[in-house]
Amino acid sequence: MTFILGSCHTLQIYSPKPSLLLSYDPTVRRSPPSATTGDCTSLITYIFLRKERIFKIMAGGKIRKEKPSRGGAAGSSNHYQGGIQFHKSKGQHILKNPLLVDSIIQKAGINSTDVILEIGPGTGNLTKKLLEAGKSVVAVELDPRMVLELQRRFQGTPHSNRLKVIQGDVLKCDLPYFDICVANIPYQISSPLTFKLLNHRPVFRCAVIMFQREFAMRLVAQPGDTLYCRLSVNTQLLARVSHLLKVGKNNFRPPPKVDSSVVRIEPRKPAPSVNFKEWDGLVRICFTRKNKTIGAIFKQKRVLSILEKNYKTLQALQTSQGNGNQVVTDASVLGDAGELTMETDENDDGDDDDDDMEMDDGEANGSDFKEKVLGVLRQGKYEEKRSSKLAQADFMHLLSLFNQAGIHFS
């Protein structure tokens, strides 16, 4: 069945059966729409939306108003704006509170000369305000229905020539130049998108992004905080991160299951001079059990086995080729959620000692390398410290000590 909006008030419903046509214009009459059913003998039910109210129109012209069920499938999964259905599975939660949109624009600090990147613009509620504040907007949208809605909404307006819409996956497409990013993003791409933005060149001024609240709190967490984790360390290595405001779930259509937060991300200039694969390798290991001592973590057989293998491989390469460890400057590796060198459990409370994972002092095989690793920790006085309490400078210092001893993490 096809729904065609003839004007802003008239809805025509065409059935695959040519003998049936329903037409309803609420500005002309208040009576129920009539139906011509021809030889159709079975009861035919049609559902349409008018000002967010649901009606059931039956053959013969009978009409019955339906109240959306709060707990039922229809009430929870069908959400519309301008005739477009939103899909929660795709992270489509559209901002509907104009005061919140204004607040985000204000806190973003947009200049009239800024080129603005928006990711997941949806139906354009935030886009409209961005066009009013900046020079131009580049909007990246995956859903072709939303792309058509954006083009329709701004066609023929003074903003149309300042809006560029890119249809595609933001994680796969090349991003153009922009000064500032302002976005309400699908939450399932939060981590890879954050590090893709931080790896973008030339460096942008700042990004003001809506995240799931727990993810946002991990971004801004400091050493000693409960949510302080590998994500916190890696993000704050590359940027200054600050929490702007908390956003309740009822500010969206459809409402998500969790609250959200708006976060400001300002890339550090210049970017830190560090091998990002080396850095991430160290941080991954340290946060396997963030509340255990660093010494206990580096005594585990798995950790020692990985490090010794890297050590021997690099020793062989340096002997044969005379080359050191290649520096990796692509920060997007920090957002990789794929293969891990170690299984992680950042919420571990530290009570499990994992005795079976530690290498016994009496083992001859690998004991020399174990002493080499522990010697590095003792040199920097890190053996009794915990990852949950270490700051950026501590991890940087520890990495340099390991590298000076010829121990690498990639």
TrEMBL record:
<feature type="binding site">
    <location>
        <position position="184"/>
    </location>
    <ligand>
        <name>S-adenosyl-L-methionine</name>
    </ligand>
</feature>
<feature type="binding site">
    <location>
        <position position="169"/>
    </location>
    <ligand>
        <name>S-adenosyl-L-methionine</name>
    </ligand>
</feature>
<keyword id="KW-0694">RNA-binding</keyword>
<dbReference type="InterPro" id="IPR029063">
    <property type="entry name" value="SAM-dependent_MTases_sf"/>
</dbReference>
<dbReference type="GO" id="GO:0000179">
    <property type="term" value="F:rRNA (adenine-N6,N6-)-dimethyltransferase activity"/>
</dbReference>
<keyword id="KW-0808">Transferase</keyword>
<feature type="compositionally biased region" description="Acidic residues">
    <location>
        <begin position="342"/>
        <end position="363"/>
    </location>
</feature>
<protein>
    <recommendedName>
        <fullName>rRNA adenine N(6)-methyltransferase</fullName>
        <ecNumber>2.1.1.-</ecNumber>
    </recommendedName>
</protein>
<comment type="similarity">
    <text>Belongs to the class I-like SAM-binding methyltransferase superfamily. rRNA adenine N(6)-methyltransferase family.</text>
</comment>
<feature type="binding site">
    <location>
        <position position="93"/>
    </location>
    <ligand>
        <name>S-adenosyl-L-methionine</name>
    </ligand>
</feature>
<dbReference type="GO" id="GO:0031167">
    <property type="term" value="P:rRNA methylation"/>
</dbReference>
<feature type="binding site">
    <location>
        <position position="141"/>
    </location>
    <ligand>
        <name>S-adenosyl-L-methionine</name>
    </ligand>
</feature>
<dbReference type="InterPro" id="IPR011530">
    <property type="entry name" value="rRNA_adenine_dimethylase"/>
</dbReference>
<dbReference type="Pfam" id="PF00398">
    <property type="entry name" value="RrnaAD"/>
</dbReference>
<dbReference type="InterPro" id="IPR020598">
    <property type="entry name" value="rRNA_Ade_methylase_Trfase_N"/>
</dbReference>
<feature type="domain" description="Ribosomal RNA adenine methylase transferase N-terminal">
    <location>
        <begin position="100"/>
        <end position="269"/>
    </location>
</feature>
<feature type="binding site">
    <location>
        <position position="120"/>
    </location>
    <ligand>
        <name>S-adenosyl-L-methionine</name>
    </ligand>
</feature>
<keyword id="KW-0949">S-adenosyl-L-methionine</keyword>
<dbReference type="GO" id="GO:0003723">
    <property type="term" value="F:RNA binding"/>
</dbReference>
<feature type="region of interest" description="Disordered">
    <location>
        <begin position="336"/>
        <end position="371"/>
    </location>
</feature>
<dbReference type="InterPro" id="IPR020596">
    <property type="entry name" value="rRNA_Ade_Mease_Trfase_CS"/>
</dbReference>
<keyword id="KW-0698">rRNA processing</keyword>
<dbReference type="InterPro" id="IPR001737">
    <property type="entry name" value="KsgA/Erm"/>
</dbReference>
<keyword id="KW-0489">Methyltransferase</keyword>
<dbReference type="GO" id="GO:0005730">
    <property type="term" value="C:nucleolus"/>
</dbReference>
<feature type="binding site">
    <location>
        <position position="95"/>
    </location>
    <ligand>
        <name>S-adenosyl-L-methionine</name>
    </ligand>
</feature>
